[in-house]
Structures are given as C-alpha cells and as structure tokens.
Design a protein that fits this description.
By secondary structure, the protein is of the alpha/beta class. It has helices at 43-57, 68-77, 92-101, 140-145, 175-188, 190-200, 215-219, 230-239, 268-279, 281-289, 320-337; strands at residues 16-19, 22-25, 34-39, 60-65, 86-91, 104-105, 127-139, 166-169, 204-208, 225-229, 243-246, 252-262, 295-296, 315-316. 35% of the residues lie in helices and 22% in strands. Helix 1 (43-57) links the parallel strand 3 (34-39) and strand 4.
C-alpha cells in the first residue's frame, strides 16, 4: 500500500538536509555508485524494483517515498538544487505539471520504443511503466450488516447509510484524489462534479494525506469504504482483509504511472542507466513475480492476474496533457468549494 514515507537504512542518514521545511536528499561521497530517487510507490514495491536494479548493475538506489503532490512540490522547491535524480512511479499528470515548471529533462530511455505512445510523453519528458485504474473498496462486513451490495455508481456513495463512513484522499497531496477529480469531471461535467462532491463531503469521515491512507481503517472495519487505486485495494485483499472491490458504471480514469529524469540531477548518467533498464520488459515482469498489482505498459509483458482484466470496466480516457494543465486549478477549486 502507498502509506508511508520510506527511509532506507543508516546509509541514508548522510543524504538528508533540512531544506524547504522538510527533509530532502543531499549528495555525499560514496564508495559504490548510488542513485537518489523520489517515488510514490510503497516500500515493498519500490524495494522489489530497486533491489533488482542493484543486483543487475551494482548501483545502489536510495529512495524517499511521498504522495505524488508532495513529490511535485518538493521537486519544484528544489529546482535550483535538485536532491533527487529520478522521479519514479508518479502519476503522469504530475509529470505534465512538472514539465511546465521546468523540473524534468528530456530523455527517451533506450527500452521505451515498444511502449505505446499513449503511455509516454512525445517530447521524452516521461515514460509510463504501469497502468492503475481507480476503484471502490468497501468493508464486506459493513455491507453485509446493512444488507447492501457494493456500490456500482458514483451516486451510491451519497446514500445515508454511508454518512461519516467514507475515507478518501486529499487532493492537495495525493494523486489518487486528483484522479478522483478527473473521473468525476469526465463522468459528469465539471460543475456537476463539484456539486456532487459537496453532497459527498457529508459522508466523508476523513481526507487522508496519501492515496492509500484510508485502506487499513476500511479493512479493519473502522470505516465503510472509499476510492482507491486498484493496486492498493488488491494489496488489502492479499494481506488478508475482507474488502470488496467494485467500479462505478459511469466510469473511472486510470493512472499512468511514469518515470522521468530530474533536470540538473547530480547523477545524470546513472539516472539514464536506470531509466533505460526500467523501460524494458524485464522490469515490468517483476510486478507478477512480486505480486505488485499493476497493469504493464510494455506489450511483451503478459497479464496473468484476472483481477487486472479491465474488459468489463468502463475506463474513461483521460487526456494527460489536459490533466496536467488543469490539475492545479481543479485541486484549488476542490479546496475552495469542498474543504474550505
């Protein structure tokens, strides 16, 4: 799940400096080659990927994990003195927004030619490595207690039975919440989507900083349900929590999880080496091996898990350039109209 900021090992201590009101990576002498990465992926997922890269190349990866909105804010704040070399696993609209801020450098990874154009920036600022749709996730015991089916429409979430029972991510910090905004705008139209969210807010127990922040309370029965990326909902099921996954008939968007080279990176050659490696099919085959429930973007990687088959789900096609341009405005409107 995507809940915690990850701090890996004693060796990371020397990589931190107190800047911009928080911690950030800082360079230090190293005996072995090292790469500094920001990611939104959980420690388990990121460790599986980064440790395999180390085994393959000998290059160690130091990483910090934050919600995508926070990564974007940090990269913008650090633009004059970048503390990370690569942003890995962020939602593509964050890369589009970052591209406009001048925080990424053009680089087309050597293994990216087979990835469909819909999942990469035409100018080479980012490359998609996975697809992850939104879904509803609800506690089964709650549904059975109230004799109701899992929600199958956005309108179902407005029912009085869910009063103070829903947990969702905060759009100021979490890419999950931004994707929720995009889903509603595409499914209903913008003004209708915000009118809907005013009503939905009456049923919200909490807005969490990270996208998966509400998953555990729902699994434990402390809340009824919420909206998550599928990777987080399936992780809850794998962990043993009895949760039900469903989708609204009006449709949901899917996130394109991407990676890119930070402009002014202190280790640009190592960064390019990692991006070349991560763009190939072998990296995406790690998903199946490590039970990382993401849909591969590389056509040579076959989908094995039936829970990732989206043929019966209405996926709304999101213009990534539009979402990158509109991200900030839509989030600000959400803050002003819903949680002011």
């Amino acid at each position: 799940m995507r809940e915690k900021c990850v701090f890996r090992g004693a060796a990371m201590l020397l990589l931190f400096a107190a800047v911009f009101g928080g911690v950030a990576l800082a360079s230090r002498p190293a005996q072995a080659e090292e790469l500094n990465v920001y990611t939104i992926w959980s420690e388990r997922y990121a460790t599986a990927i980064f440790d395999q890269f180390t085994r393959d190349t000998g290059v160690r990866i130091n990483f910090l994990r934050f919600p995508s909105g926070e990564v974007l804010a940090r990269l913008i704040a650090e633009k004059g003195n970048p503390q990370a070399d690569v942003f890995f696993g962020g939602i593509a609209d964050a890369f589009v927004a970052g591209k406009a801020e001048g925080i990424f450098e053009q680089y087309v990874p050597g293994g990216a030619d087979m990835i469909p154009s819909a999942y990469k920036d035409p100018e080479g600022y980012w490359t998609g490595v996975a697809i992850d749709p939104l879904c509803f996730m609800f506690n089964r015991a709650f549904l059975e207690k109230h004799s109701i089916e899992a929600p199958s429409s956005w309108q179902d979430l407005l029912k009085p039975v869910f009063r103070n029972g829903l947990i969702m991510a905060d759009a100021r910090t979490a890419g999950t919440a931004v994707s929720r905004l995009f889903s509603l705008v595409l499914a209903m139209g913008e003004d209708e989507a915000y009118a809907y969210q005013k009503e939905l807010d009456k049923n919200i127990q909490q807005y969490t900083k990270s996208g998966a922040g509400g998953a555990l309370p729902i699994g434990r029965g402390q809340a009824a349900g919420g909206i998550f990326f599928l990777v987080d909902a399936l992780e809850m099921q794998q962990t043993g929590y009895d949760v039900v996954i469903s989708y609204p008939v009006e449709g949901v968007v899917y996130g394109v999880e991407a990676m890119g080279l930070v402009k002014g990176a202190k280790n640009p050659e190592l960064a390019r080496k990692f991006l070349d490696w991560a763009a190939g099919p072998d990296m995406q085959r790690i998903y199946e091996r490590e039970r990382i429930n993401l849909i591969p973007t590389h056509p040579d990687v076959k989908l094995e898990n039936p829970a990732l088959d989206m043929k019966d789900v209405k996926l709304l096609e999101l213009d990534i350039d539009w979402s990158g341009r509109e991200r900030t405005r839509l989030v600000e409107r959400w803050v002003n109209e819903i949680v002011h």
